[in-house]
Amino acid sequence: MHNPYSSAKVKSSEITPEEVYLNRREFLKSMGYVGLSGLLLAACAPRGISGSPETDSAGGEIASEVTKTDELGDPVNTFEQITNYNNYYEFTTDKEEVAILAEDFQTDGWKVEVTGLVNKPKTFAIDDLVRQYPQEERIYRLRCVEAWSMVIPWLGFPLKALLDEVEPQSSAKYVKFTSIHNPEQMPGQNSRLFPWPYTEGLRLDEAYNDLAILATGLYGNSLPPQNGSAIRLVVPWKYGFKSIKAIVKIELTEFRPDTLWNLVAPNEYGFFANVNPEVDHPRWSQKSERRIGELGRRETLMFNGYAEQVAHLYEGMDLQRNY
Ligand SMILES: Nc1nc2c(c(=O)[nH]1)N[C@H]1C(S)=C(S)[C@@H](COP(=O)(O)O)O[C@H]1N2
Ligand SMILES: [Mo]
User: Fold this and answer.
1) Residues 6 or more apart from 153 whose CB is under 8 A from it?
2) From the CB of 99, is ligand 1 less than 6 Å away?
3) What residues in the chain have per-residue pLDDT under 50?
């Protein structure tokens, strides 16, 4: 398989905009992204995503430099920021070293097994998933439990589409996700401080919420290894650690699954992990956050600003206890 990241390694000063465009077009085509709007095709990832395309005097489209925003009007973080400040403990606990250590991570022939309490268990090749499910752009805030945040333009598809395909049985109440275990490629997995592989979980109704996506790309391109290639979960109303990277297995279960952070420190990281400014982490406040690229702090929003879409899932629950 081609290496989708090879173009990103070429210094942008060494290639012409046209080459960038053609490269991206070829790449997107090969990954099945042909259905995307010209708006995405016109975006040049490393420089910042384009806003609405404008027409030049010759009638061709030129990429404008308007930065995209989330629905609250806040600009997306730069590609540089999103791909160089990462939590990915399988590689290292140093956020600024992940990109280098993950650079050669092999994702060729990636497969995801979907199994457990379903009528039609199936193992999906990632290339088929990308072709089968239209890849949508979703601009989401990502709020890490450590109290920093970003705005990220993901590409992906609703998790519920995949769940529908395998037909959950009525006894299925939870979805368990498991990341790849490969200490040879992931030096951090040689550390015995963590119960590898990384695991996460959602209640089935949370997994069916429209905000929950499986991401296969960002900034109109494929997913860089440091951001969880080949496929990762994105649940933007929850703390970032729920958005598990490099998924190889999705399992429908009757009982609440163990999750890595809940096993490591249950008093600090709950199963639900909904962003909640009223529930402090035992060691720090969750009332405010540092948006990467900004100087001051901003107030943290209930459910990370997605209350309208998800608050109903937790009606009647004591969110102080079920953190
Ligand atoms: N497999 C795996 N998934 C993971 C993590 C990890 O260490 N391993 N870190 C989590 C945390 S704490 C955060 S904040 C987000 C960061 O995602 P990003 O690097 O794409 O911004 O990934 C989450 N998913
Ligand atoms: Mo995080």
Assistant:
1) 49, 68, 76, 137, 138, 139, 218, 219, 220
2) no
3) 1-30, 32-56, 58-60
